[in-house]
Amino acid sequence: MYRYDEFDAAFVKERTAQFSDQVARRLTGELNEDQFRPLRLMNGLYLQLHAYMLRIAVPYGTMSSKQLRMLARIARDYDRGYGHFTTRQNIQFNWPKLRDIPKILADLASVEMHAIQTSGNCIRNITTDQFAGATADEIIDPRPVAEILRQWSSLHPEFSYLPRKFKIAMTGSTNDRAAIRFHDIGLQAATNALGEIGWEVWVGGGLGRTPMIGKQISPFVPHEHLLAYLESILRVYNRYGRRDNKYKARIKILVHETGIDTIREQVEEEFAHVKGGVLTLPQQELDRITKYFAQPDYELVNETTVDVAKEKILNPPYGRWLERNLNAHRQPGYVSVTISLKPTGGAPGDATDKQMEVVADLAERYSFDELRVSHEQNLVLPHVRVTDLPAVYAKLVEHELAEGNAGQITDIICCPGLDFCALANARSIPLAQELSRKFASPERQAEIGDLKIKISGCINACGHHHVGHIGILGVEKKGTELYQITVGGDATENAAIGNILGHGFVVEDVPAAIERLVDLYISKRESADESFIAAYRRLGDAPFKEALYGNA
Amino acid sequence: MLDLATAPGVRAHKPDKLRELGIMSLNGMFDEMDGVAVLRQAVEELLVDDVAIVSSFGADSSVLLHMVSEVNKDLPVYFLETGKHFPETLDYVETLKRQLGLTNVIALHPDAKDIERFDPKGDLWETDPDSCCHIRKTEPLDATVSGFGGWVTGRKRFQTAERGVLPHFELTSDDRIKVNPLAYFSDADITTYKLKYGLPEHPLYNKGYKSIGCAPCTSVVAEGEDPRAGRWRGLNKKECGIHFDFNGAIAKPMAAQELNLFKDGAFIADPFRAWAEGDDAASVRYTHIPLPVFLEHREAVLANPHPVGLLVSPGDNVELVQGDLDRFSSIAINFPAFGDGRGYSSARLIAERYGYKGELRAVGDVLHDQISHMRRCGMNAFVVKHEPTRKALEEGKLATVDLFYQPVGLTEVPVGTRPFLRRALENA
After folding, report:
1. DSSP run (H or E) holding B20
2. A·B CB contacts under 8 A
3. Contact indicator for A483, A475 with CB cutoff of 8 Å
4. How large is the C-alpha radius of gyration of chain A?
5. What is the pLDDT of residue A368?
6. Whether the Cβ atoms of residue B330 and residue B306 lie closer than 8 Å to each other
7. Number of helices followed by number of strands (H, E) in chain A
8. A148 touching B, CB under 8 A?
9. Three-state SS for A99?
10. By the number of CB atoms within 10 A of the CB, which of A274, B55, B77, B304 ranks highest?
11. What is the mean pLDDT of residues A157-186?
């Protein structure tokens, strides 16, 4: 993975010093809160419901064990002993004290981490496939380009005061695990007619109060011109994006109101000026960065498969874990392991300091010192030898990290909600906990199969409810928390936004309503191989609506 | 006659009412054009042995010096040897001394310690012209004239709008008398006088210099322009601080004005002002014309002989004026609120794509933490009102990150062996 050189280290050091100076100026009153807020935000510091929240960047979701250990230490020393992994592959701490922030940032800098641009109206952390560089279904490892984009977007002087935040996601695989169609810019690795690899570019996707599926703006941009192309998009957005209304300021609104064809023309015109200039990415530089992401020294192993069926009989929990939590690796004899942060009754995405240390140890010992954060709020050991799986599993069991539920109904994406967030209208974590208890039975989950539930505590949709197979949105109506249920959303390459089928439910009625949807699906599916989302696409809204609201 | 002068060196703090009335009545006694009589009155009646004559030996100085020679060739004539004069001016001093027979021309030099302290590199005129005038002109002159009860100047009413009501005699706020024998002389009168007495021209006069001061701060004046427009051109500065105003108060030195424009490492007086309702695009000067106004009155602005600027606000399309940018002495990028980042794109287009080389300034909500971004996008001057930001700039203590990942702009240099992405601020 990428390692800081002197330049990166000096950069982060300067930025930390700069922010310390800004904090000092805020404390003396030289900066008022209006002037301080954007600076604070651009350094990942939010003022939440109860306290400050610090969001730390995990560039494209990749970390070393040393870095995760530092996060564990910060959780223990400066927070309440846990951290929360987010849908943007970052981690946030909910209880740091303002006076500790400079110390935390200095600690982070010592392990090549920072909180730069984890919020604010700038280009946010670049996210990607949690199995990047490891998965068998990949056209190209997206991480070198992601790292180049990270560098290009860090403190970009032209794009630090955009109309609104700007999120870029990329995937090197045709199986989109990074939700690229729901980002301001989505990059999909593509091959052109000459067999060259480059990027298909999508623009104007997003969730929030106006969910939009991204539109293709270019079918193919070669690596060397990617920065120029992205700068062209950003410039068009910076100049023409709406600034009159915060809720209409994302690029998705510009694309929607202007039309993708006009936006494409504007971008192409800008691109014609910028292309071939200083932003042209030399192959040499791409090669240099790519070296950091060289494949680890895999061992040639005889045993390349694991007999899941046999394990399911011998040790059912282990068998289920093998069945659900492994992803096929490009290297025979290896797999990528998803470590679920969705235990029964737990808060999705939370990990204690001890758990982080355990995962760091496992990464160091069994995964070439590498680990990942997934946008589904789990952790991943990307390169684990098949023969090491029993040992890894045993360790996970000890620390309640061995839930074999990846991709199942209890693998819920959930925002912090009203328990933490100043924007939220409704609680979301307690509902996720309740659902995970209701569907805790492994047999029941296995029967249901792939089903993604996503919960947001407000319209800003941090919990991605629009793209849940079943989405749950907390709203507040006349002082009561109500939950709107959507069906049919999909964050993958088959991108779809879920439909609202009727009125909302009070919190006590939500689990039963979800159960009715699940029961309906099981009764109507053609076979156990037809997933919830596939059945929904075949059946349409009507039966699901009836399941929710009766035959009224 | 009138015994109005007090003893040399003893100055009343409060002007005497009678004295004021006496000075006023003196102003009615002489024919407007009879400068010699005015000078004679001052030298022989009003301020006997108590008057200094100050001459710049500039374009029009020969007329007053000729009058001096008519009255008394031994009168002390002070010349401010600022050290920044054109060589032609120094030659001209010798020419006039010789031709008019002046025996007592005294050069006043700036204090060497002041120069060492404030202008060691000799470039103060560039960063802070007011201070430059102060140490090279005001200070040496003050030290000299404070020993006299009055002084004679060569100022004329026609020279600038501010001097339109100049009288022959003025009482200053520190109770001295300023004598202006040429107060009523027009440009034509000067020319006629010079011709009548065969006075030599300043060698630079026929090269287009109509008002001549120190070399760095004097430029050629266009046909039809105010003759003093060539002085401190581009700066909102009309007087050097050594004159006294009409009402008798010492003219406020420019240095005391608000210095809002941060440029080349220092705050300086801003020669430009904002466009105002009722301004005429064809005749405004030192004004930032809003881009939409420029588009509407393009021909008039292009025909306007004065220096003008362009104001680019968020939403303005700089593409529309790309061919006209060189017309402007200054382009202002407007940031109505610091969170509106459109100006960064406008600035990059102007500086990088259209190759504009002049002053590109940020105006509006210009704050500490945005300035380094503005600089990287090509802005080279900042109008700053936020006091803490001014302080940080003055002290050179801007909190910035001077290591750059992405190539932006024209001035950033590659660091070390990395040709592509990583750059550092020049000289950082």
Report:
1. helix B17-26
2. 101
3. yes
4. 23
5. 97
6. no
7. 18, 21
8. yes
9. helix
10. B77
11. 97
The C-alpha angle with vertex A87 and arms to A85 and A88, in degrees rounded to 5, equals 95
Q: Are B211 and B221 in contact (CB under 8 A)?
A: yes
Contact A134, A329 (CB under 8 A): yes
CA distances from B368 to B130, B383, B385, B426 (A): 26, 12, 11, 19
- At B12 the pLDDT is 42
Tell me what pLDDT residue B11 has: 44
Neighbours of B324 (CB within 10 A): 15
B395 phi/psi in degrees, rounded to 5 = -85, 0
The predicted-structure confidence for B334-371, as pLDDT tens digits, reads as follows 999 999 999 999 999 999 999 999 999 999 999 988 99
Return the pLDDT at B210. 67
Domains of chain B: 17-256 (3.40.50.620), 261-424 (3.40.50)
Taking the Cβ of residue B322 and every Cβ of chain A, the question of whether any pair is shorter than 8 Å is answered with no
- Residues of chain B where predicted confidence (pLDDT) is lower than 50: 1-13, 241-257, 414-419, 426-428
* β-bridge mates for residue B396, sequence order: none
For B346, which residue in chain A has the nearest alpha carbon? A239
| CA angle, residues A395, A401, A407, in degrees to nearest 5 | 130
Nearest-Å Rg of the Cα atoms of chain B is: 25
For A10-50, the DSSP string reads HHHHHHHHHHHHHHHHHHHTSS-HHHHHHHHHHTTEEE-SS
Residue A16 confidence (pLDDT) above 60 = yes
Q: Measured on CA atoms in the order A516, A518, A523, A524, is the torsion positive or negative? A: positive
Burial of A335: CB neighbours in 10 Å, binned 0-12, 13-18, 19+ = buried
Residues 6+ apart with CB under 8 A from A269: none
| Calpha distance A198→A179 (Å, rounded) | 19
pLDDT at residue A220, rounded to an integer? 98
Query: What percentage of chain A reaches a pLDDT higher than 70?
Result: 99
Residue type, A20: S
Residue A297, helix vs strand vs coil: coil
Helix/strand/coil for B381: strand
Q: What pLDDT, on the 0 to 100 scale, is given for residue B185?
A: 87
Task: Look at residue B356 in the predicted model and tell me its pLDDT.
Answer: 94
Reduced to 3 states (helix: H, G, I; strand: E, B; else coil), residue A65 is helix
> What pLDDT does residue B162 have?
54
Judging contacts by C-beta atoms under 8 Å, the chain A residues touching residue B405 are 11, 151-152, 154-155
| Helices (runs of H) and strands (runs of E) counted in chain B | 14, 17
ipTM above 0.90, yes or no: yes
**pLDDT, tens only, B146-156:** 788 888 888 88
Cβ separation A148–B399 shorter than 8 A: no
Closest CA of chain B from A213, distance in Å: 26
Name the nearest CA neighbour of B72 among B94, B95, B49.
B49
* Cβ contact A472:A484 at 8 Å: yes
- Interchain pair B407, A161: CB under 8 A: no
Closest chain B residue to the Cα of A121, Cα to Cα: B339
**pLDDT above 60: residue A503:** yes
Locate all alpha helices (DSSP H) within B107-247, ordered by sequence: 112-118, 124-127, 129-133, 139-145, 187-197
Average pLDDT over residues A355-373: 98
CB atoms within 10 A of CB A38: 19
What are the residue numbers of the active site of B? 240
> Phi then psi for A135, rounded to 5 degrees?
-75, 150
Cβ–Cβ gap B338/A161 under 8 Å: yes
pLDDT at B23: 76
Ordered domains of chain A (ranges, CATH): 6-110 (3.90.480.20), 134-288 (3.30.413.10), 308-398 (3.90.480.20), 413-549 (3.30.413.10)
Question: Distance between CA atoms of A44 and A86, rounded to whole angstroms?
Answer: 13
The pLDDT of A483-502, averaged and rounded, is 96
Find where tokens 């011709």 sit: B195
Length of chain A: 552
